[in-house]
Amino acid sequence: MKAAPSAQRLLLDVQAVDTAIAQEEHKRKTLPEHAQIAEGQKIRRSLIEAITAADTVVGDLEAAVAKAEADLVPVKERQARNQKRVDDGAADPKALQAMIDELAHLERRISDLEDAQLDVMERLETATAERAELAAQRAECEKGLRALMTSRDDQVADIDAQLAVEQDKRAALAADVPADLLALYDKIRARAGGVGAARLAGKRCEGCQLEATASALDRYLSAADDDVLRCEECDRILVRNG
Ligand SMILES: [Zn+2]
Q1: What is the mean pLDDT of residues 31-40?
Q2: CA of 230 relative to ligand 1 center, distance in Å
Q3: pLDDT tens, residue by residue, 152-164
Q4: How many angstroms is it from 6 CA to the middle of ligand 1?
Q5: Which one of 46, 55, 166, 168 is most buried, counting C-beta atoms within 10 A?
Q6: Residue 96 has pLDDT above 90, yes or no
Q7: pTM, whole model, 2 decimals?
Q8: How many angstroms separate the alpha carbon of residue 171 from the centre of ligand 1?
Q9: Residue 28: what pLDDT?
């Protein structure tokens, strides 16, 4: 392929812009915020699951507290009724003794029920506190996530603005490169890690960093100025200094 030396040198400018574009794109893709946000979202999901489970525990204990209160009502009513009859003395001694015995039994029953009530109330208190702690952790996690997302969005916006500038620059430069040379460059760049054209610096190709053999160098230096050279080692377009 033939191309004016100035067009070949222009390729190096296109290459520099393409490298800058690739770096910006890489930076955008590898922002630490991406991984931090994914980790935060994972934590938030597990917190939401834990809160749902805690809601169930609290709900069950609230029902248990209500049941413990309800269980006490008829026993206390019966105790009051019996106590009144004993106080009134409205029974023969045998029946009276039976009622006194039953009162003692009701007393123990009420004590047991009150112990049970206290137990579930304490458990409810603990479960409610645990749920509140989880809710606080979730709020904290979401606050952190919002900050990370803002930071990510700001950086992506900056990078995109920079990319737009570079892409305009690239389009302006590429417009002055002959179409066949640009197509060759793009083809090589796609398969050679983003570098399609490199300078010949002394004996060294700046694309692969290898020094040319004596025979290759001889060929490079004896070629016509408008011959488009290819590095014998990496096959990239090799641009001589003008
Ligand atoms: Zn090379």
Answers
A1: 98
A2: 8
A3: 999 999 999 999 9
A4: 20
A5: 166
A6: no
A7: 0.78
A8: 26
A9: 98
